[in-house]
Amino acid sequence: MSEAATHAVTTSGPGLLASLDPLLREWLPRQRWFAGKGRPVSGFSLVAATELLPSGNRTSLHHLLVRAHQPSTLGAPPHAGDCYQLLIGEREALPPRLAPALIGHVPDGPLAGHTVYDALHDTRPADVLLEALRTQARIGGLHFERDLRQDIPGGLVPRLLTGEQSNSSVVYGDRFILKLLRKIVPGVNPDLELPLALAREGCPRVPPPTAWLTTDVAGESYVLGVLQPYVRGSEDGWDLALREAAGGKGFVTEARALGRATAEVHTALARALPTVTLGHAQMRFLVDGMAERLEHAAQAVPALGPYVPGLHSAFEALADLSAEGGTWTAQRIHGDLHLGQCLHTPSGEWSLIDFEGEPAKPLAERRMPQPVARDVAGMLRSFDYAAHSAGAPEEWATACRAAYCTGYAEAGGRDPRTDPVLLRAYETDKAVYEVLYEARHRPDWLPVPLSAVRRLATTDVI
């Protein structure tokens, strides 16, 4: 049993949160994973609080689930506030190595006179999490569970990954990686659900979950984190593509292999989980959603305006095809597939990771069966982004897109390009999303999706 498990004590939650409130209002909106950027935080409410290392030690660790309250955007319905998972470390003073983790100095309340910080930067709190998973601890309302068929040795040295992520990840001794979800919602999280299903199918393209952290609050279940094998020596697909493109090298071999890997994952998911058939009514609903997102984006980004009629034609062509009796199979998919969600090993194999889907979308929507074309379209768009980022010619991306589809056909039995109307609609929807995102967050990148918009508005060829 872990040391932390002997201290299954709930902290003085409300008093603790009140003392942290002014510090969190400054610190939380600066985090990469904070979803409510651009709106002030008006207050916090406590969902759950648990001591993982008790106060009085040289290092204390508080696990908090906190709801951040913010005013709704203009025209949006009232919002209860997003819930965040925080791991708050407490020390009398921070050593220099932990300076980047500083949240602030607490003036009053239970932690008065102490310094609090993001505990994932610190080895001792990170050790506590792995040991709790290894021993299947129950600490307060936190449930640490594991697959007993996989060995988790003790003493693995932790290190926090500091790249831009929508969550937080800790690597242990290059053996495991623990992904801790930051914005959490109740329900079955696909980032655990789908890798477990793929592990049951024996799919080697996705690292199988080794352990996971959950909790139950007010009758609702939350997935808080997932531990998986760390793919040693692997390279992020985005970084690899940029390096090859910047060096004037082709990427078609890798793109073709990635297409095969994607098809293998889709095939395994279709075996493991139910599929459905989409007819005219379902496709009309899907197309109406795409059209609505286009209108919203066009109102926010005037540069999109000239292309709106042509983009609408991509959606209506799909609706027309369904009205003529066309049907499509929908299944569970990755939901947010791009080069950054893929790992390339030294042996040339690909692994797919991060099955959470688009975090901004409701969980129920992320878990809905969808045509595999949505994942394919996301990857096709990613090749365009890689070419632009590396200054490679458009032909580089065109070759990668073709190779990816060829590889997909080899492993999946059907080339995505044989259904150009469906693929064009999904790629158009993705490009419209990108236009809105870039206009809001990275205006210098706006030419990338606008280039795709021009192509998609004037042709039905992918």
Question: What would you note in describing this structure?
Answer:
This protein is 39% helix and 20% strand. With 462 residues, it is an alpha+beta fold. It has two domains: 4-229, no CATH class; 235-458, Aminoglycoside phosphotransferase (APH), C-terminal lobe (Aminoglycoside 3'-phosphotransferase, Chain: A, domain 2). Helix 7 runs antiparallel to helix 11 (420-441). The longest helix is centred in the C-terminal third of the chain and has 22 residues, at 420-441. It is globular. The model is unreliable at 1-11 (pLDDT under 50).
Question: What key phrases describe this protein's structure?
Answer:
alpha+beta, Aminoglycoside 3'-phosphotransferase, Chain: A, domain 2, six-stranded antiparallel beta sheet, disordered N terminus, 462 residues, 12 helices, seven-stranded antiparallel beta sheet, single chain, 39% helix
Brief write-up:
The chain is of the alpha+beta class and 462 residues long.
Task: Please give the structural blueprint.
Layout: H1 13-27, E1 43-53, E2 60-69, E3 82-91, E4 102-105, E5 115-118, H2 123-134, E6 138-139, E7 142-146, E8 158-160, E9 168-172, E10 176-180, E11 183-184, H3 190-200, E12 211-217, E13 220-229, E14 235-236, H4 237-246, H5 252-272, E15 276-278, H6 280-300, H7 308-323, E16 328-330, E17 342-344, E18 350-352, H8 363-366, H9 373-390, H10 394-412, H11 420-441, H12 447-458
Antiparallel strand pairs: 1-2, 2-3, 3-5, 3-11, 4-5, 6-7, 7-12, 8-9, 9-10, 10-13, 12-13, 14-17, 15-16, 17-18
Helix pairs in contact: 3-5, 4-9, 5-10, 6-7, 6-11, 7-11, 7-12, 9-10, 9-11, 11-12
